Amino acid sequence: MRHLLNILDLSTDELDELIKTALDIKANPLKYQDMCAHKTLATLFFEPSTRTRLSFESAMISLGGSVIGFSSANSSSAAKGESVADTATVVSGYIDIIAMRHPKEGAAYVASKHSKVPLINAGDGGHFHPTQTLADLCTIYSDKGRLDNLTIGICGDLKYGRTVHSLIGAMVRYKNIKFVLISPKELALPDFVKKNILDEKGIEYIETTSLEDSIPSLDILYMTRIQKERFLDADEYERLKDSYVLTEEKMQLAKEDMYVLHPLPRVNEISVKVDSDRRASYFRQTEYGKYMRMALILKLLKEKDSAKAEDRESYPTDKKCKNEHCILTTEQELEHLCYRDEKGIVRCLYCDSEL
User: What's the Cα-to-Cα distance from 70 to each of 5, 47, 57, 211, 297, rounded to whole Å?
Assistant: First the structure.
């Protein structure tokens, strides 16, 4: 059984295959309109979503399938205290494939261990969001004609930005990729991403607080919003929420072929006046997201009966995960498990935080 929890679950060959399929779907939609006839997708969204949930639903319907699910925890048995594991066990008996979003990091991993059908992580807290990355990759490829030899600026919330973590994990596997990480110090990229991905792969990157100084060198600018829902301290959010705003004036500093992406929703980090710039790719990005999710659904259903991927070796621990966003904070019955990464650092099995 194949699941998609992390973008690293897909090889670069598989990513290229998905992009090729997505672009073919865009060009020849009628060819794919009945490929999921009599199949059902469950959208289990414990956290609000517009683009991701509707994109999944539109993708499945466009493939000839049907959709069931819920759009918030309050409209599910989670409001009664049902565990993620039990929800996944029950729902997977009704349908053919699941797309799940949850505010706690590691929730998708827990659900996948109890699901009888392929499960797609549609976002787990500030951890990972692999299908947004699929949309990002398809957009970059369509705009630039390549996924290598790029300098990518990522601006805003790099600490809690699950889309950022997934994008970095995907792009480091292509040749000659450089990153410019633009954020307030309080929202800098977490160590688990820097150490486990960038440093481990020997990827060149710089950290800065200045968007203006960085933008002239970029091939891609990936803007993100400061996410209010990830902050435990309201005052800290208020202090940081307007850290970066992309304006027409700042776009004049950029290359003529520098494209702007954003996972959306935006608040005020991109001026609406930038929307008319031909380099603004964020609305095209949402469209490519649907096609990539269609391609992914087809792939996972086709490989439903393939051999189960080996899980990383883990073992019980007395150490408590200190990540307040970890699934362990709400799923009390879960066993506290850890693993050792390539450098021997002990990490939480669910959220990857160092123990």
Answer: 20, 10, 11, 39, 19
